[in-house]
Design goal:
The protein has about 170 residues and is mainly alpha-helical. The chain folds into two domains: about 1-80, 2-Layer Sandwich (Phenylalanyl-tRNA Synthetase, Chain B, domain 1); about 80-165, Non-ribosomal Peptide Synthetase Peptidyl Carrier Protein, Chain A, CATH 1.10.1200. Helix content is about 65%, strand content about 10%. A three-stranded antiparallel β-sheet has the order 1-3-2. The model is unreliable at about 1-5 (pLDDT under 50).
């Protein structure tokens, strides 16, 4: 029982840190903070800050993170507008790579929806196309490979459509 409450505390502090950073991002284009300052503010170890940054502020969720280590090191988080940033499509495709699990694929679709690149209907179609139930491939490696190809194809098509609409 003690493990669960400890795990919940860890999740709660992660939520608090995430909310804090998102509140700042709601007021300005980017957040630039020292990892050690955040750790001190929330009275956590720096690895907890790393965990939050790595799991909650990544390209799948619509964020670009730059990190500089060392004495004057900082973390810079920028929320990117997927609709108006062709480089982000490239970054998403790089993240997908040759293989992607369903959960990470869903995060990418959610980010596209959140940034109004796709409608709710399109998001639901994309989620259906990359779901485990639709793919029904017994071998997980093959399933993740096919999912990556389908998602990459859809993102490339979105880039093409955005280019046409922008003309």
């Amino acid at each position: 029982m003690a493990e669960n409450s400890n795990n919940n505390n860890s999740n709660n502090i992660s939520d608090v840190i995430e909310t804090y950073l998102k509140d700042i991002l709601g007021q300005q284009e980017l957040v630039q903070v020292k990892r050690s300052d955040l750790a001190e503010l929330f009275q956590v170890v720096p690895s907890q800050i790393n965990y939050v940054i790595n799991t909650r502020f990544n390209i799948q969720n619509g964020y670009v993170v730059e990190s500089k280590r060392g004495g004057g090191g900082y973390i810079q988080i920028t929320h990117v507008d997927l609709l108006n940033n062709d480089q982000v499509f490239d970054d998403l495709i790089d993240v997908i790579g040759d293989s992607i699990g369903q959960a990470n694929g869903q995060k990418i679709v959610q980010a596209l929806f959140d940034d109004e690149v796709i409608s709710q209907r399109e998001a639901n179609i994309m989620l259906s196309a990359i779901s485990k139930n639709t793919l029904r491939i017994a071998d997980k490696v093959s399933e993740n490979t096919v999912r990556a190809r389908v998602l990459t194809g859809m993102i490339n098509r979105l880039r093409y459509e955005e280019g046409l609409n922008g003309q």
